[in-house]
Specification:
Length: about 280
């Protein structure tokens, strides 16, 4: 996302500076090579990554194409084998619809984990892999825990945690649950639609908890519309029970995508996790 900032095509907002980067016009919305149309969305509609970790032990309780094999590729990026074209090494454009497709797939993956009573514990853009055909895979399960017997997990060991992606209850009480993963998902949405900016850039990890308790939240990212920002804010509700479920999130984000795009994403989701089940 960082590399594609200058070739990002904003299809959601009324930003006056949108699409003003060094766009590769050979892969514009009207180009058949990209598999994108100008009407891309539903009518319903200084390294930038912060890897700062903070020990919280002292916290107080306050259009599809078909390949040679006959495989139907997703319309939202039918040619995604490389970020560069052969002449001039120019990066391909990145579209708002790409970001929505990624967000939808992440929500579906997290819905699956929640159905299996598994909390991820470290959901962040840095822990998302992008595979061929624009398929998203959630990775890095180092902090994952089974919550089969209980709906939450209380972290007792004294270990560092990624503060800027943590829900309030994780920092105050060291309690993790699927609903704390929902908070982290809201941060991931913010990362996607800011094109990998650093969350809370003006706040140090040590000062973040008091600001969150006062009601401070991330501002709307540059490339998100009001609908998406409302989804993010719902993920950051102080009370875990007031946050949406991943089932609700994937339905909401899916409604922002065209039906055919959503159906292709669903197919990839089921193929991926059918292979895990076997």
């Amino acid at each position: 996302m960082q590399r594609h900032r200058e070739v990002f095509i904003d299809q959601l907002t009324d930003n006056k500076e949108k699409n003003q980067g060094n766009i590769n016009r050979g892969f514009s919305c009207s180009s058949g090579n990209s598999g994108m149309d100008s009407d891309c969305l539903s009518s319903n509609q200084t390294q930038e990554t912060d890897h700062t970790f903070l020990n919280t032990a002292a916290s107080n309780r306050s259009g599809r194409t078909v390949s040679e094999t006959g495989y139907v590729q997703p319309e939202w990026r039918s040619n995604y084998e490389s970020d560069y074209v052969s002449d001039g090494r120019k990066p391909r454009p990145l579209y708002s619809r790409d970001l929505l497709a990624w967000a939808f797939q992440i929500a579906r993956g997290m819905e699956y984990l929640a159905s299996r009573k598994i909390l991820h514990g470290d959901l962040a853009a840095r822990n998302i892999l992008l595979a061929e055909d624009n398929v998203v895979k959630i990775c890095d399960f180092g902090l994952a825990r089974s919550i089969y017997k209980n709906d939450e997990y209380q972290k007792k060991e004294n270990s560092p945690l990624p503060v800027k992606w943590l829900a309030l209850e994780c920092m105050t009480d060291r309690i993790f649950s699927t609903q704390s993963d929902v908070w982290s998902f809201g941060i991931v949405l913010w990362e996607l639609f800011s094109l990998a900016k650093t969350p809370y850039p003006e706040i140090s990890p040590q000062n973040l908890l008091p600001r969150l308790l006062e009601g401070h939240r991330l501002d709307k990212p540059k490339y998100a519309d009001d609908r998406l920002y409302k989804v993010m804010r719902s993920c950051w509700e102080q009370r875990p029970g007031k946050r949406p479920t991943f089932s609700e999130l994937q339905e909401t984000i899916g409604s922002f995508l065209e039906d055919n795009v959503r159906n292709v994403s669903n197919r990839f989701y089921f193929l991926l996790f059918m292979s895990l089940d076997t």
